[in-house]
Amino acid sequence: MIANKTDTFSNLGLSSELISTLEDLGYTKPTPIQSASIPLALTGRDILGCAQTGTGKTASYALPIIDILSSGKSKARMPRGLVITPTRELAEQVSENFNIFAKNFSLSYGLLIGGIPFNEQNKILNKGVDIIISTPGRLLDHVDRGNVLLNSIKILVIDEADRMLDMGFIPDVESINLMIPKIRQTLFFSATMSNEIRKIGGKFVINPKIIEVTPPSSTSKFIDQKLIFSKKSDKLKNLFSIIKNLNFESLVIFCNKKSDVKRLSLKKIFNQHKVVILHGDML
Ligand code: AMP
């Protein structure tokens, strides 16, 4: 069999420092999105990537960004890289990834998300950060306060654009886009690539390479699955009969509304169990 030349990280054009970090992390082989996007990103090309979380997409943009930006230094309040994510949680994950991948580099990062005092984030910006990882609202707040200038951005990543659209953040991302130099590199990722997302993506990228990877199977081989069709009025009865016949130590039930979560947790069937409810207090 002829080996694919993008089957190893060393064939993708990454620096030896990054390759050694990836070895330490136990990453033996690039994922398909990494094989496709890392060499292109390293040449400065714009990318419209369709990849879900779990495909290794964070490394597919973080690794080339680290190598590209490693040769310079940012001035105070003037970052050179910007990653915009729809949620705080994703921004935190991305920032952790940058910290891990760039342990052998002297790059600095700023995580700008809500729920953390502006002062703390401002101190970090004042010291000078090379890369900002942020949600759109908090970034615009910092821009409005004059805490950060975006006119030195060389690489922009828009991550999970479809969620950005669902959450109504595209106008904020468009405002941010207007503050960034037109000549820069843009890596635009979305878990789905509908016509609408493609059209939105087109506003941010120039002559992009379109990369689509098939999502990995998300089902663990240790999980048996069953699909039960049920009338709405029979749903609880059917659920309870399944639970009664299950021999379980612990059980997770997902509902689509917080009211359903609460209602279900109070049912008699759970009386002899310790029940914890979790929801984001949204609906
Ligand atoms: P992501 O899709 O970026 O959220 O990555 C999903 C998970 O896969 C994370 O835990 C990464 O650390 C891990 N990962 C990413 N790329 C690789 C790789 N090439 N080999 C092994 N694990 C990886």
Describe, in plain words, how this protein is organized in 3D.
The model has no long low-confidence stretch (mean pLDDT 91). Helix 2 packs parallel to helix 3, helix 3 crosses helix 4 and helix 6 packs across helix 8. With 283 residues, the protein is of the alpha/beta class. It has a 7-stranded parallel beta sheet with strand order 3-4-2-5-6-1-7, sandwiched between helices. The protein starts with 15 loop residues before the first helix and ends in an 18-residue tail after the last helix. The chain has 11 helices and 7 strands. It is globular, with a radius of gyration of 22 Å. The longest helix is centred in the middle third of the chain and has 14 residues. The site of adenosine monophosphate has 12 residues, from helix 3.
Spell out the blueprint of helices and strands.
Layout: H1 16-25, H2 32-42, E1 47-50, H3 57-69, E2 81-84, H4 88-101, E3 109-112, H5 118-127, E4 131-134, H6 136-144, E5 155-158, H7 161-166, H8 170-179, E6 185-190, H9 195-202, E7 209-212, H10 235-244, H11 258-265
Parallel strand pairs: 1-6, 1-7, 2-4, 2-5, 3-4, 5-6
Helix pairs in contact: 2-3, 3-4, 6-8
The site of adenosine monophosphate has 12 residues, from α3.
